[in-house]
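Researcher: Let's try something more involved. This one mixes different molecule types, so please make sure each is placed in the same coordinate frame as the others.
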Amino acid sequence: MAEKTTLAVDALGGDDAPAVVLEGTAEALKEDPDLAIVLCGPREVVEPFAASHERCTAQVTTEEIAMGEHPANAVRTKKDSSIVVGCRLVKEGQAQGFFSAGSTGACLAAATLVMGRAKGVARPTLLTVLPSPVAPVVMCDVGANADCKPEYLVQFAQMASVYAREVVGIAEPKVGLLNIGSEEAKGSAFAQECHKLLSARVPEFAGNCEGGDILEARFDVVVTDGFTGNVCLKTIEGTASVLFKAVKGALVSSPVAKLGALAVKGGLTELKGRLSAETYGGAPLLGVKGACIIGHGSSSPTAVKNGIHTTAKIARGRVPELIAQAVVR
Amino acid sequence: MAEKTTLAVDALGGDDAPAVVLEGTAEALKEDPDLAIVLCGPREVVEPFAASHERCTAQVTTEEIAMGEHPANAVRTKKDSSIVVGCRLVKEGQAQGFFSAGSTGACLAAATLVMGRAKGVARPTLLTVLPSPVAPVVMCDVGANADCKPEYLVQFAQMASVYAREVVGIAEPKVGLLNIGSEEAKGSAFAQECHKLLSARVPEFAGNCEGGDILEARFDVVVTDGFTGNVCLKTIEGTASVLFKAVKGALVSSPVAKLGALAVKGGLTELKGRLSAETYGGAPLLGVKGACIIGHGSSSPTAVKNGIHTTAKIARGRVPELIAQAVVR
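Model: All components are placed in one shared frame. Result:
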């Protein structure tokens, strides 16, 4: 029998918590017989759920970190919140990973402060896998570090390459630096310095990646500072959302088109599904001592389920340990 | 009779120059009887065209700036290139504006060095009008200044607000700062400082704009540094291109869908046309002494035509003068 993988799950995270989280957790448990969950949250939520689901235990917590709170302050003062307790379970070895769809800032702060940074990691990084129709694209940092030093991007490249190989299954990831031209000398002073360091220290580095190259999957991994990465990620999501709405509008613009729209609806729905961020269930935080995925606040049950599956995959692949080796090589 | 507006046009700019430029120029002259063009380029190109078109004069130039050349060096050494000569015609008052689909860097350098910066302008800025299906959105800087000081963004906001009012026709433009959260304290140290300055000095400033807000047209004007703006613009274009391809793929995925696709084709083509960057014909450079639009290297004749029309609109609206007033107010 395979060894069980135990994950801590934040029952309170997300706009429609706890209902959405419970539904996703139940699905994940059903699909993965080697998975065990420690569900963190208020007694009235976690105890009945644990009682009625195999391989689930309840971890009662008494505090809650709301979306608007100052992350570091909240983590320091609310020691019995579901986010802090979930991270502590990982720190203490009672769980191998943590999933939450709660406040990104609070999860970042708790994972960094409570689980702790992996040795040699200057800044943990938030990563996303873009579901491009061409091929999946790993991008980081997407918001953990608004202000970066060029050295951080070297580590982001090292950490994201491990993730691309071990979790996304890209055998030889090509790393690109997000920049405003393909030539070496292009870009801000910061980007030029990053280019130099990446060339010297990251064998996977393959050059500059322009905005238009991202979804074309010209690179498997795109590294950037957390400000540009976050703007870029939200721009991609926003552009896709506006365009899908416009396509839908164009499809019902005339009676003939309306008839045609019925015929193409299946294909479009399938495409929208493939392009959905739900596939990966959230953004992994790399560079901390444990598997950690932060789901979108508006996560659906499917997104929660997939987020839990991916957290388990990170834990089973010993990705945090491989990352710690990669940054000191 | 209305007064003629004279524009200098670079016959050599663009991937398919001079053919595409000549076709667009001929169309523009036909559509606008108050327009006169000074066509800059090699004798064998500009003289036959000028001879066969009303209101067009030839300005023979003997040098050419290629796409890969170092912009500032090329502008300094190739004084008789079509780009430098076109800008000099504006400087000398023989033309009110300049249009080129040539090297963006060379056009930026020539316009700044030869026409000169408007008094009080720290850095001229490259602007774009995003053809969002919701409403047009003005964004700047999109690549002229990879490294910015927060003070520059104050001027970008002032200049772009004038452009939004006078050229795009938005009576009361709302300005947003591209950032990674809606709250005031969000973002990089740079973004936070920009937020402070914009709040204090730009009455049109309405808060932070996230990546997902851009195409939703939550703001009429989006200001950012030229690195983030360029990445963002190319990301929007790339996302739209990849998605349209994927939608097309989905539409022919089954025989029934194929039939439906025929019926919806008209609507989609119309939508793609509306979302095309061709509509505005290029990126205006604001903060120099004269109207100046830099077209895309891959401009079509329609894009060249529209770029010339917009350059004329900028000149007629005395936008460069209004901008000079706005930055010193």
